[in-house]
Structures are given as C-alpha cells and as structure tokens.
Amino acid sequence: MDTTQYQTFAKDYLGGTFTNLELLIVAFTHRSYLNEHKKSASEHNERLEFLGDAVLELVVTEFLYTNYSEPEGILTNWRSSLVRTESIGAAAARLGVEPLLRLSRGEKHGTDRARAQILANAFEAITGALYLERGYDAAKVFITENILSTFDDILKTGSWMDPKSRLQEVVQGQAGATPSYRVLSEEGPDHEKEFTVGVYVDDKCVGMGTGPSKQTAQVSAASAALKKYL
Predict the structure, then answer these.
(1) Is the whole-model pTM more than 0.70?
(2) Which of 142, 157, 172 is the last residue of a domain?
(3) Is 192 a catalytic residue?
C-alpha cells in the first residue's frame, strides 16, 4: 500500500506528518473494507469516529459559548447546523478525503446519501486521529479552519434553522402564505418505505422530496423549495 498520499494529506491539512501513520490510515478505513482485505487490514474507523465526534462537539460548543450570549436553544440549533452530517461531509469533500477512503467495491458505488455519511464519519475519525497524535489544540485548529470558518455563512443564510422552519419564514415574508405538505406516493414494504412529499404554496408545488419517513421527505421537499426562494 502506498502511504505517501496519507502523509501528504497530513502535511497539507493536519499541521504536519504523522508519527503514527497507521492511526491516520485507520481513520480513512470504512468497516466494509475489512471484509475484502482481511489479511492486510484489521481495524476500521468507527472507534476514531466516536472519539472525534466528542472532540468536534466540544470545540464547537466552546466556540459558541465563548463568543455568543444567545439562549441555550439558539446555541443548540447553531451547534447542530455546524456538526450535522451535511456540514462535516462537505468539509471532508473540500479536503479531498473521498479519493483516500478505503472502501469495499460495493460502498464505492453507494448512494449519495450513504457517501455523505461516510465522508462525515471520516472527518470525525480524522479529528479523532489528530487528537490522539497531537492533542486537543491541534484538533481545535483543524475544526476551526474547516467547520467554524463556515459559521458566518450559516448565520447569513439562515441555514441553521431546520429547512421547514426556514421555508415557512421565507414564504411568509415573500408571499404572505404558509407552506403545506402532501404525500404524493408511498413505495416499498412497510419496513422499507420510501415516501415522496410535495410542498405547496397557494396550491402550487414548489418542491418535492423523498425519504424513509414522511418527516424526512418533508424536510427534503422544504430544502428543494428553498433553492427556488433564496
């Protein structure tokens, strides 16, 4: 295995090469990879992900508590927007994590939703590996540069609000109306349903979304509608 690319990643984005390079390689290793490489790989990144998730949440919480005096509820929503799958998955994508991931052949051709989750998990695992290699301060710098640096945009766009609340605020402001949601279809067996939901303003469909539950599909539809209004 060529390990040069992992040291290059560490040098470019983690403040320097890793003494324990194997630790960093594990951070890029998905559980599925072990099934196809039992002789050459023995550990996947879920334990590092567990650690990195805790470090990430602490750094973000400390930043918000130190710099803002808003009530707990707003701070909690802001934190959620910073550490949600979409946010940290996007950060991993910007860092070029995906080509370095060690995945099974099946996972390499997975859905966009599955890929976003894998990228988010890898970001947390990398954070955990960095914390073990160089400590809290180094992890804090990494998180500040790649997660906290997006906070101004989150405030500006209002994306810290959940999509349904944000859409309602925008539509009421622009059209004086309240969005409504309708289930357009249900497919699949009871244990694996796929719902399609449309969101309507003045009886006009302004967005559609799908998901494994009505609530998830509504959020997806609201997100699609927001792209038309913002």
Answers:
(1) yes
(2) 157
(3) no
